[in-house]
Structures are given as structure tokens and as C-alpha cells.
Amino acid sequence: MTDQPVFEPSSNLPDTLPVVPPAVEHTPRASRASTLVALLVVAIIGGSALFVSGFTLGRLAGATPGTTDANQDLFRPFWDAWKDVNENYVGPVDRHLLIEGAIKGIFGALDDPFSQYLTEEEYRASLVGISGEFEGVGVEMSTRDGAGQPCDTISDTCRLVITRVLRRSPAVAAGLQVDDVVTAVDGNSTAGKTLEDVVQTIRGPKGSVVTLTLVRGSETLQVPVTRDVIQREDVTSELLANGRVGYLKVDGFSAGSAQDLHDLVTELIGTNHVEALILDLRDDPGGYVEAAQKIASEFSAADPLYWEQSATGAPDPQHPAPGGAATDSALPLVVLVNGGTASASEIVAAALQGNDRALLIGSTTYGKGTIQEFKELPGAGGYRLSVRKWLAPDQTWIHGVGLAPNINVQAPADEQPPNDAVLERAIQVLLDQLAGKPIHTDPPPTPTLVPTPSA
């Protein structure tokens, strides 16, 4: 990933001034003077009352968890406002919402898009999204019209099709296949529904059974599937250049990404005997730092891979994990990047580029050089907070700058699949390397990297 207040009260009038009735405008001058004196007295007394109230409230705040004696003056305005809202606001007051709003204000004041307060629902959804785990059957689906293009509402001309069956999933055990058309879920037709509508009915708690009605060729099948905990597959692979080049696409760094990549790299090298590798990190928003460290370790044994630095500490080297399947420099490797390559995927790209293990091909990366921690606030959701910076192997900080590719390739704005100019260039670079031809890289950009921040 803020709303700003649109009402700003004047600071020139005391909050305790009474409203002067219109009749005052028609009183004699002496009466107006008396009224003015009275108003001033009321204002002075009111101001004194506010001061005493603030002082008393500050004394009471010492018993409030988290407000130390040293912070009494700092927190006094907050507790004054809290007390006034709860005692004097004319509308309904939801104290839980007040607390959430106050916490949001803390994180909003940081002006850091990566540090954010999350409600209980947002906090749970964020953890599920990062972990890559959900309960369901383990298929990916899309809606397609007669020309194979995406469509909105399922109908006779807009079919719901299984596009992928995840490895080690209940869908595999039940025999679901790519290109199966889903026409009903538990006897309820999918017609008139959207993809999102149907997905919600197929997902469900582990151990429960959902029955899918499928059209496969000329057959109509009723297939019961027992739901389970599914690990999202963020890594896919294929063979290119007549089997000489192994291609790996990483869409995220979830809990299972590192193991999936290790298995696929091992298969490409040991079973398919590829001669070179492509690691595609384009449009990968990142995820777990631990997954990034393990994935970088699959390709490089250089020490350190990268560095981490806390708010008060010195840069701390991060070491490669043992057992990398493709650390041999005799196996050429290129990494595809673009402006959507961010965070954990930038850590991997920086580690491989900075340790001379791979060439980066594509366009400059996003430039996110911070690491966040998620922490729960019991009863009030949780938050994510930027707690560390990560640094490239040479200890530069790419935050707000990004990583510049060794070979800059800008994909055409109107490029349509299966055309892929960046991938085509990567394949040619690898084939040239295998043929012993010199590789021409672009000159490095004018240095704009942020120097290593001091402790």
C-alpha cells in the first residue's frame, strides 16, 4: 500500500467560548462592554480549567500501560483529547474504533508506505497472502470465451476452465485435469456467476468434501474432492531452446517457494540436463526474506550473499545456505527483472548480480530496500513495520533507486503473449555464452546508489 482530516478548527478562539445570542447585537454599548468582560472572564476561567484538566489527566496517565513518567508531557495532549472525546462528544463513541484510529495515526506519521496498521481482518489476510497457504482443492481457473479470451460472467459462451492443477494437491488425487470445464459446484450451476463467486464456493475447511461437475471432451463427470491445506505454487519451469535452456518463473516468495524451486532446478539439471538457466523475477513483489536467502543460495555460494542492518546496528552479513543445486559458475545464468521486481526478489537479483553469478536482463527494478516484521496487537489487529534495511553485496542501499540491469531491454508497450522480447534476448545471450561468443553489456548508469547508512 491515507485519509486526511478535511475539517481544521480555528486556533484563534478558545474552545470554551459560549455562543453569543443574536440579541446581544442590539444591546447598549455599556451592556456590550459588560458582556465582553464576562466573556473574557469565562474564557480565562475556561482556559484555567483546561490546564488543570490536562495536568490532572497527565497525572492519571502515569497509571496507563506504556506511558512512562518520562513521557508524561509528550502524551498529555493525547490523553486530553481522549478524555474530551469520550466525555463531551455529542455523537456515539466507539472506543475500539478510537484506538484503531490512534494506531493508524502513528503509522501514518511515519510516511512509510511499507509500515502500516492492519485491522484484524487485514492482518489475517496479509499473513495468508504471504504464507501462500489456503484451504481448498488446489486448482487455478479462469473464464474464457470462444476465442480463448477472458470474460466476466459464466454462460454458454463464457466457460469456467481449469488452467492449472497444483502439485501434491487433492485435485491431483481426484484426477482433475487442465482444460476441464466446471459447470456446477455441489449441484449448483456456475452459470450467471463470476470467477470470484465460484472460487469462494470451491474453497472450504480442510477435510470437507466438494463435488465438481465437469465437462471433459464429450463426457460429463461428477468428481468429489476432499479439501485440504494447499500451498500456493509460486514457481514453475519449462524447457526452452530445444531443451538446452531451463526456465524458472518465480511469482512470489511464500513458505513453499524455496523448496519448490530447489526441486525444479534439480530436475532441470539432473533429469533434463539443461546447459543454462533463466530465472524470471519480473513482476515478483517479494515475500519471505528467508525464502529469498534460500533461493539465492541455490545459484550462488558467495559469502556474503547480501547484508542486513537494523535501526541501531552495523551491517550484518547474510550467508548462503549449503546445498545449492546450481552454484557452478560453468552453468550460465541470467535473471529477468523489471519495475515490478521488488523486495525479496530484489534481494535475490542483487545477490546474484553483485556476486558476479548472473547477468540481469530487462529494466530497472522497483527499489524497495527495507524488511518488514508483522506483529499482532491482541484485540486490535496488528501491524507491519520496517525494522531492517537490506544492502547489496557491496553494501550499497538500493531503496528508492532499484537495480540497473546489465543488459537493458524494454518490452514494447503493445507486446502480446506469446511474444516476449526480454525472454528472447535472454535466450540469445545464453546461447552466445554457450558458443563462447562475447557478451556486450550496457555501461553502468551514473552512480546514484545511496551509500550504506551509518549505525
- CATH structural architecture of the largest domain: Alpha-Beta Complex
Helix content, binned percent: 25-40%
Q: How many individual β-strands? A: 19
CATH class of the largest domain: Alpha Beta
The geometry reads as flat
At the fold tier of CATH, the topology name of the largest domain is: 2-enoyl-CoA Hydratase, Chain A, domain 1
Unreliable stretches: 1-63, 448-455
Global Rg? 30 Å
Number of individual domains: 3
Order of helices and strands: HHHEHEEEHEEHEEEEEHEHEEEHEEEEH
Number of helices: 10
Average per-residue pLDDT, rounded, comes to 84
Q: Report the sheet with the most strands, covering strand number, pairing sense and barrel closure.
A: 6 strands, mixed
**CATH homologous superfamily annotation of the largest domain:** 2-enoyl-CoA Hydratase, Chain A, domain 1
Strand content: 15-25%
Q: How are the strands of the largest sheet arranged?
A: 10-11-12-15-16-19
Written overview of the protein:
There is one protein chain. By secondary structure, this protein is of the alpha+beta class. The chain folds into 3 domains: 25-93; 133-231, Pdz3 Domain (Roll); 235-434, 2-enoyl-CoA Hydratase, Chain A, domain 1 (Alpha-Beta Complex), CATH 3.90.226.10. It has helices at 29-61, 72-88, 95-109, 120-131, 170-174, 195-202, 257-271, 289-299, 344-354, 421-434; strands spanning 116-118, 133-136, 139-145, 158-165, 181-185, 188-189, 209-216, 219-226, 228-231, 235-240, 245-250, 276-280, 306-310, 316-318, 333-337, 359-362, 370-376, 382-391, 407-408. The chain has a 6-stranded mixed beta sheet with strand order 10-11-12-15-16-19, sandwiched between helices. Strand 11 (245-250), helix 7 and strand 12 (276-280) form a beta-alpha-beta unit. Helix 1 (29-61) crosses helix 2 (72-88) and helix 8 packs parallel to helix 9 (344-354).
